[in-house]
Amino acid sequence: MAWWGIDDLRGYMKDAILPELKYGGDIPTCPPGHKSHRNTLSTRFKRQRHLTGMQCLGDGFDSSVNNWIIANVPNTSLGSYLRDKDEQTGEILTVPSARKFKINSTLPAPVREFNRLWAWVDHFPLRTVQRILHIIFPQSKDWGFFSETQPHYDDHIFKEFYFTDIVHSPTPEIASNSVLVACQPPWVLSDEDMWQFTELQSLPAGNLRLRGKERLWSKLWDICVRKQCFYFIVTSYQQWAFGVFSNGDLPNFTFSAVVAKAV
Question: What 3-state DSSP class applies to 212?
Fold first, then answer.
């Protein structure tokens, strides 16, 4: 018997596994446990940028996510009127199942440069997350992922998606509930770079040259302040970090952050 994701959405979420990246061409590599030293984001020290403390959630994040899934995601069939693919919108579950579920999905082109990695992030995790959210929360149908296409100085190593209301005009409430998804390629944001990013405790208070992990935090801070969007995800496709800035004292842009990492 073939099981579709819609037959047991909770089981599918537990069984789904991102495909291993396929590389093509001469992609830079980084030995395990080493920083890439390629995170040349253009962010520089700003005196008005205050990030007073970072807190890592650790293992408690996994428990919170599992409890949320149990409370909100059904483990029985949702009926014959629903399918893995919405024929009207084209939304579909794309992340393959390790064992049980029949998921029809094709691999994007091998990654030869950053834009192709971006396609993998969009095709697998983001499309699947959007489909799941629209299934379990039909009232969220006006929300979806869209990419920031405006060119900028760092767009060869840093790209953005937003999960937000894509139908209505932006409001402060919409902005504060939106999520930034920031992506850097694994040859820039190595596993070691990601670990150091999640372990950072604060940004420098003086006018110092920023290190790679500090430039990344500063980049997130600048974007989230500009967009008034406090939830964020940082990914290299191979590693994922989930975080939120406290809204703090907005006129003075003073924030703290909570971050959790998932491999």
Answer: helix
What b/e readout covers 238-252, taking b as 16+ CB neighbours within 10 angstroms? bbbbbbbbeeeeeee
How far apart are alpha carbons 52 and 130 in whole angstroms? 33
In-domain check, residue 89: yes
Q: Provide the number of structural domains found in the chain.
A: 1
Q: In the numeric block, which tokens belong to residue 206? A: 């003086």
Sign of CA dihedral 121, 145, 199, 209: positive
**Cα separation, 171 vs 187, whole angstroms:** 37
pLDDT in tens, 51-71: 767 777 777 778 888 999 999
Range of the domain at 100: 9-262
Distance CA 129, CA 76 (A): 19
Residue 32 pLDDT: 81
Nearest-angstrom CA–CA distance, 58 and 42: 30
E-state strands within the chain = 50-56, 143-147, 159-165, 179-183, 231-235, 240-245, 254-262
Supply the pTM of this predicted model: 0.90
